[in-house]
User: Fold this.
Amino acid sequence: MTRNMIDTPDGRTQVFVIIGDPVTQVQAPQLMNAVFAKAGSNSLMVPMQVSSDDAPALIRALKSAGNVGGFLATIPHKFELLSHANHIGAVAEAAGCANALRRNADGSWSTENFDGIGFVTGMKNVGHAIGGKTVAVYGAGGAGSSIAAALLDAGAEQVRISDVSQPRCEQLCARLERHWPGRAIAVAAGRHLEVDIVINATPMGLGEEDPLPFTLEGLNPNAVVAEIIMKPAETRLLREARARGFKTQAGFAMLAPQIDLYRQFFRIPDTDAAGNSSEAVSSGGFQP
Amino acid sequence: MTRNMIDTPDGRTQVFVIIGDPVTQVQAPQLMNAVFAKAGSNSLMVPMQVSSDDAPALIRALKSAGNVGGFLATIPHKFELLSHANHIGAVAEAAGCANALRRNADGSWSTENFDGIGFVTGMKNVGHAIGGKTVAVYGAGGAGSSIAAALLDAGAEQVRISDVSQPRCEQLCARLERHWPGRAIAVAAGRHLEVDIVINATPMGLGEEDPLPFTLEGLNPNAVVAEIIMKPAETRLLREARARGFKTQAGFAMLAPQIDLYRQFFRIPDTDAAGNSSEAVSSGGFQP
Assistant:
């Protein structure tokens, strides 16, 4: 992608770090630095490649640096990041992993998981309501966990979760139960006939020869079929769902809203609206 | 100073960190990022403010990040930085402190102290020879130590060191003795009548009311009077020396060459010469 021009950092720059292993593929530095530049914020995001063994000490040490304002985490550090927060957002807690960590004015640290929130925001942005809906989620890993929690947080009536590992599925439901009692249930695959939304949060579809993660047979014709896989942009699931007339949501739709969610979480003013801030910098979707 | 535009970092960016406490005053990010940009190097320097208590863990942790290429250190971390290197340059070893640390291709780390080397390079750049000269250095602290070592490394015949603390002065001479036997001596203040160069490496002159760090009476008329204080740009010492017809070197002259020394140390190609590299990236003044 294009590497936009930004002001060089100076001694007063607030530094944000995205940690990953590997980290070469991340696009957050380019995207977030464009946000910082637009907001006129003397802030900068840089990547750091660190192993799982070394990540805990690196996060602790960077937190001790006074001008480090926050972190993003990509694979495999989303579980580790959670343990460095004083305040854990509801979605992160239920999902058991986080991808953003922020220094607060009082020196404490807040974390949240925006994978699921990004997914839900992407759905809402194109008019797919969540409130009151029944949703089937395939896959109870990191992405599926975050999405299930965010769906419930956004008012979904019921989330039905399937996974090849029945214990993993039931552990997730137990965590969700604590926040949203009675609304998350573990089900066997294939039980989504009457759902409003069905989501693939498994890796099936990364390979062109992969079988479908679930059958489309008998699905409610008004259902939305959603995908979290971004490469390929159109998986076999999306292609077949579209061919059968279902509404679909592609994987990138969950990524696109996340940059603005990170902006709010990191309390960078939104200068899009009218050349000046359209919201208090202390606002944002996060409630620790 | 002007904050030049640079490319945003991306996932492949090599990160350099300047640590200090405070760090807001540093100009290295702006200066080094201009060097990286000119060289077409996907590298970036960011500041990190860290206390002396937290600096050791931060340096260790950042060294564990695969894309961190090196460090600069400003007050108070120059002594700490030295202890994180596998290979210590002669000037850093003699001075007992360092301001640059570099990751080598084999994963080891090399350090050097460019305060003194910058000073000597600044002298040479304006035609003040060092080889064979007798030099008086006032002040055996971090700056004075580094300058004394660099002068000897550059071939000064003898360096005479004075400090308000006689033990500190003798400890420095003992360290210098190991590298350059018989050429560094501790002397009482005022014994510089026959020297070729006399240098103020004390804090005296930071305040406009400060007394001169040494008398100019009886100084060899051809001597160079040099200053390391940068603010004010013209100290009382420099003003009086100039009025009496001595050649002078101002404090900023030791800073100006350092950026290019860091460039070489960090093995960033020099693209000034003819649009392409004028030297092998493995060259540079540093000999671990």
